Structure formats: structure tokens, C-alpha cells
Amino acid sequence: MRDEIIFGKYEPRFYTGGIRRFENLNLEKLKKLVDLKFVDVEEYQNDSPTIREFIKFMEKYPDYTVMGYVVSIERSDYRVSLDGIEKIAPAESKAEENEFIELFRNADDFNINDEMYAWFD
User: Fold this and answer.
1) How far apart are CA 89 and CA 84, in angstroms?
2) pLDDT value at residue 117
3) How far apart are CA 115 and CA 14, in angstroms?
4) Cβ–Cβ < 8 Å for 41, 33
5) What stretches in the chain show pLDDT beneath 50?
6) If DSSP codes are grouped into helix, strand and coil, which group holds residue 7?
7) pLDDT tens per residue across span 75-89
8) CB-based burial of residue 51 (10 Å sphere; 0-12 exposed, 13-18 middle, 19+ buried)?
9) pLDDT of 63
10) Which residues, 6+ apart, have CB-to-CB distance to 108 below 8 Å?
11) 3-state SS string for 63-116
């Protein structure tokens, strides 16, 4: 069910080493994964905010999507991890830009010029 929410269906051939990347996951799908206990809201990737913090930001600014990866059920570390957030447009207000900077400033790849983008390695 987890892969159906994220990718539309489960396709093991797209996993490499038991991992499959995803992009463009919206707030509705992320919340569904949380509700079904596929996501631990306290988890985080390296220096990223927690998933709970991603959700809180996206509730305020719903045009953002998240990216990350899933680990196959065949592995002992089965999970969904978020490692980035983006919006293919500039911030609509200085407040949005400031909140984005404050929350995601520790990202390894960070952009607030033509788009809003943060990725944590």
C-alpha cells in the first residue's frame, strides 16, 4: 500500500539495493502515509528538520512537495525518508522566504532564487 500511495503501484524492478527514490510527494499523500503508520513523524535525514516540521511548513505553504526515498520491505530498515523539499516558483512573500530559510538553511543544496529548493545529503 505504501508504494501505491507514493508511486501508483509496487514495482520491485525500480528498486536498487532495496532503495527507490521519489519526488513531488504532496502534503495529502504524506499525511496519508503518516496516518497509515508508514512514516515516523519524528524521523529526519541528517541535518534536516523532522517529518513533523516538513508537514507543519507544508500545511502553511501547500504548494511545496517533498522528495526522498523508500527502503524495501525486504530489508530490516524498511522506511520512508524525506531528504528534500521544493516549490517550482519563488516565495510568494518575504514571510514565506524567511520561514523557508530558517527551517531549511542547513541543507547541503539550497536555492531561493527562481525556485524554493532544499536537499539534505
Assistant:
1) 16
2) 98
3) 28
4) no
5) none
6) helix
7) 999 999 999 999 999
8) buried
9) 97
10) 46, 119, 120, 121
11) CCEEEEEEECCCCCCCEEEEEEEEECCCCCCHHHHHHHHHHHCCCCEEECCCCE
Q: Per the structure block, which three cell numbers stand in for 76? A: 530490516
Q: Would you state the cell numbers that stand for residue 62, as one nine-digit string?
A: 501547500
Residue 16 backbone phi and psi in degrees, to 5: -120, 120
Determine whether 82 is exposed, middle or buried from the number of CB atoms within 10 Å of its CB (0-12, 13-18, 19+). Answer: buried
Q: Can you give the pTM of this predicted structure?
A: 0.93
Residue 19, pLDDT score: 97
Dist. CA 90–CA 96, nearest whole Å = 10
Q: Which amino acid is at 11?
A: E
CA 45 to CA 25: how far, in whole Å? Answer: 16
Q: What is the dihedral of CA 44, 88, 93, 120, to 10 degrees?
A: 20
Cβ–Cβ under 8 Å, residues 88 and 115: yes
As a whole number of angstroms, the distance between CA 20 and CA 16 comes to 6
The per-residue pLDDT for 39 is 95
Is the distance from CB of 97 to CB of 91 less than 8 angstroms?
yes
